[in-house]
Structures are given as C-alpha cells and as structure tokens.
C-alpha cells in the first residue's frame, strides 16, 4: 500500500528542480547582450588551473569628458575566448586596432572563461587610406 501524500512530494521536487534549471539557464546560458567593441588589443593570455582558457583585454578610447572638455578617456574591455581559431587570430593582432563581436552572459562558467563577455569573431580594423594630393591641391596649400 502506498502512503498518502507521496505523489505531492514528487511534484514539489520536480517544481524545485525546474526552477533551479531555469535559474541556471538564465544565468549561464541565455545571452544577455551581444555587440561589438573596437579598440587596441592589449593582451591575450592562455591561463587557468583546471580549465585553460584564453583571456584578453582591449583598450577602448573615447574623447571628451563630462567634467573637462578636450580630454581623452580610456576604458578596458576584458573578455574570454572559447574558440581556439579566434584566439590564434587575436594573438597575431596584439597591439593592433581590432573590432570584436562578443556575447555577454550574466555569469561566467570556468570552462568557458573567467569573464562574462565571450568573443566569438574578430575583424582587423582597416588602416585609413592616405589621401592623395593632386597638383591642384598643392597650389592651395
């Protein structure tokens, strides 16, 4: 004979497991934002004790400040890279101006990297073309 109330315990357990699975999904698997950042690639390292991951940093520069006009500000963007091919491409571009596409999560997983932002694509910024002067332009200089 089964005891009364035994089915309710299973239902409560399933509801708790479903809630915990939902919290885990929204914290670690759901993409909170994705976008691009452009700046100078400062560093890229392969680091970790148990899970080796690629960790990098881009220096983002901007002009102007709320307090003082004409100042230059910089901000660092720290990221992880889970794709080895993307990491190798970034490693070759250290010190150059790059644009990276990233996905940001609400939490970091140790096998994905230490940072919440995960870079999945990289594009080297083209060098601006030099303006060619014509003899007519030289007359007005």
Secondary structure layout plus pairing:
Elements (H helix, E strand, L loop, with lengths): L5 H24 L3 E15 L5 E11 L8 E10 L2 H9 L4 E8 L12 E8 L10 H6 L1
Parallel strand pairs: 3-5
Antiparallel strand pairs: 1-2, 1-4, 2-3, 4-5
Q: How would you describe the overall organization of this protein?
A:
With 141 residues, the protein is an alpha+beta fold. The protein folds into 2 domains: 1-30; 32-124, OB fold (Dihydrolipoamide Acetyltransferase, E2P) (Beta Barrel), CATH 2.40.50.140. It starts with 5 loop residues before the first helix and ends with a helix. A 5-stranded mixed beta barrel has the order 1-2-3-5-4. The chain is 28% helix and 37% strand.
Major sheet attributes: 5 strands, mixed, barrel
Domain module tally: 2
Query: In sequence order, what are the helices and strands, one letter per element?
Result: HEEEHEEH
Name of the CATH superfamily of the largest domain? Nucleic acid-binding proteins
From the coordinates shown, what is the CATH architecture of the largest domain? Answer: Beta Barrel
What is the name of the CATH class of the largest domain? Mainly Beta
Radius of gyration: 24 Å
- Strand pairing plus helix content: what structural class? alpha+beta
List low-pLDDT spans: 129-133
Number of helices: 3
Strand order of the largest sheet: 1-2-3-5-4
From the spread of the alpha carbons, the general shape counts as: elongated
Q: How many strand segments?
A: 5
Oligomer: single chain
What is the CATH topology of the largest domain? OB fold (Dihydrolipoamide Acetyltransferase, E2P)
Instruction: Kindly report how far apart the N and C termini lie.
Output: 102 Å
| Beta strand % | 35-45%
Please give the share of residues in helix: 25-40%
